[in-house]
Known about the structure:
Elements: H1 5-24, H2 28-39, H3 44-70, H4 76-97, H5 102-122, H6 137-154, H7 159-171, H8 175-200, H9 205-229, H10 231-257
Amino acid sequence: MTAILPYLIACPLCMLAGFIDSIAGGGxxxxxxAYYLALGSGGVLARLSAGTNKLSASxxxxxxxxRYARGGDVAWVPALTATAGALPGAFLGAQALEHIPEALxxxxxxxxxxxxxxxxxxxxxxxxxxxxxxxxxxxxxxxxGLVVGFYDGMIGPGTGTFLILLFSGVTxxxxxxxxxxxxxxxxxxxxxxxxxxxxxxxxxxxxxxAAAAFSIAGNLLGAGFAIKNGxxxxxxxxxxxxxxxxxxxGVRAAGVGG
Length: 258
């Protein structure tokens, strides 16, 4: 592989991933395979791909958070409360993976995701109903962070997508606010993961920083697009991303089961 080829593979795909991720989450479904193609897979190279992906994605998430925040589309107290739950949740999820067969965890998600897709596709307009009114809202935010953080630590793909769905469907956030708030939580978990990869030396800094510039551009474009077009585009992109997550987990489950 020539020296320039990894950049030609990773940079444009990270821009596309950033665009998708800033709207509905799930950008890692594009960027992580891009790094596998650019750097290789198996053993150290797989960890290097994951670590480098976290580097570029974290910069992109920062850009998206700033874009949403400038538009007033981040609910800071819910986002930070969920972040407090997500950090221990991710740790517990990683620990659980050591004791729960990955094939079983994937089969559970294969059952849950189609149900989520159906619910999403049959919803119309803004999510108005609040299931957690009053004093219950803040515990609900922490539980959302804990549950999604646990999922992130144990399985991973689509963490931002599930944050958006839960913020919208459980707490009644409008989709645009849910997207902005989810990016805050996702950024925190991403930086935490990045620190771990950095300590292990599993980051390609030159490639990651180059791709980060493209990720930033994609996130800014995607956040602006979501803010301009609102709930309908977010729900449509969510449906596509959920379908991609379903396919990805299906392939992964087949590999683990085999």
